[in-house]
Amino acid sequence: MEKKEFVKDIIFVVVGNLILAAGVSFFLVPNSILSGGVAGIAIAIEPVVHIHPNTMITILTVILFLVGAVFLGKGFMFKTALSSVIYPIFVSVLTNFADVIEITSDPILASIYGGVFVGVGLGIVFRTGASTGGMDIPPLIIHKYTHIPVHTLVLAVDALTVLLGMLIHGIEPALIGLISVWVSSVMVNKAMMFGLHEAQSIMIISEKHKEILEEISKQLDRGATILEGQGGYTNEKRPVLMVVIFRKQFPVLNRIVEHIDPNAFVIVHDVNEVQGEGFTYSET
């Protein structure tokens, strides 16, 4: 990894953990929101263990980091060490400000905005290929031995965390906590995809493919790949146009196809990232 890229990743990890800690300190902990992660567990078990959530967050973060180092190896340890150190520090520092500045006492608002901050923070850290430590670690360990998708395991762990809170705090706090979990999962994806070239891959099957291709080139300044297709029932060979466009260009393409061949068969796929001429560098 180049030095510039390494420094950039470090900055992203620090900023991501700061945003994550802000969500926990200003929204989740002050309003006792049952969310996922170590903050959710700390809040859930506070009435039982009588340990302040901030202290429990630090204890759980250290324990889970050590467990991850044992099961996931040195590579994991180096990537996650920074998060495991700075996250509890950020939470402790920001909690002092939260004690003075009350943003909201509405549990619904706290759950929504706490989920936004947590999701954005996690997404920024995940973009670097690093982990925030904490409750990211159990899913990673289970994935290593079972190969179940990590995002599925993360949702399962968060759901179990909220369930634990429901057993201690009741149903209504758990329902409010689920709002935070859902908002957080949405914002993780948004943060990870932010800045990428969202596009659509269009497959067009039409007898008038030449006319459609000409208009696509003329109106959208896009090329296309002509694939060879074969009807499953008729065994008749026919060309298939594959066009990749920016999402905002789809209405124009749709009008082109409808005008030339209303009977054309069109398949649309969402694409999160496109690299190449016309998308990531200028045409020459």
From TrEMBL:
<dbReference type="Pfam" id="PF10035">
    <property type="entry name" value="DUF2179"/>
</dbReference>
<feature type="transmembrane region" description="Helical">
    <location>
        <begin position="12"/>
        <end position="45"/>
    </location>
</feature>
<keyword id="KW-0472">Membrane</keyword>
<dbReference type="InterPro" id="IPR003740">
    <property type="entry name" value="YitT"/>
</dbReference>
<dbReference type="Pfam" id="PF02588">
    <property type="entry name" value="YitT_membrane"/>
</dbReference>
<feature type="transmembrane region" description="Helical">
    <location>
        <begin position="84"/>
        <end position="101"/>
    </location>
</feature>
<feature type="transmembrane region" description="Helical">
    <location>
        <begin position="148"/>
        <end position="168"/>
    </location>
</feature>
<keyword id="KW-1133">Transmembrane helix</keyword>
<feature type="domain" description="DUF2179">
    <location>
        <begin position="222"/>
        <end position="276"/>
    </location>
</feature>
<dbReference type="InterPro" id="IPR019264">
    <property type="entry name" value="DUF2179"/>
</dbReference>
<protein>
    <submittedName>
        <fullName>Uncharacterized membrane-anchored protein YitT (DUF2179 family)</fullName>
    </submittedName>
</protein>
<dbReference type="InterPro" id="IPR051461">
    <property type="entry name" value="UPF0750_membrane"/>
</dbReference>
<feature type="transmembrane region" description="Helical">
    <location>
        <begin position="174"/>
        <end position="196"/>
    </location>
</feature>
<keyword id="KW-0812">Transmembrane</keyword>
<keyword id="KW-1003">Cell membrane</keyword>
<feature type="transmembrane region" description="Helical">
    <location>
        <begin position="51"/>
        <end position="72"/>
    </location>
</feature>
<feature type="transmembrane region" description="Helical">
    <location>
        <begin position="107"/>
        <end position="127"/>
    </location>
</feature>
<dbReference type="InterPro" id="IPR015867">
    <property type="entry name" value="N-reg_PII/ATP_PRibTrfase_C"/>
</dbReference>
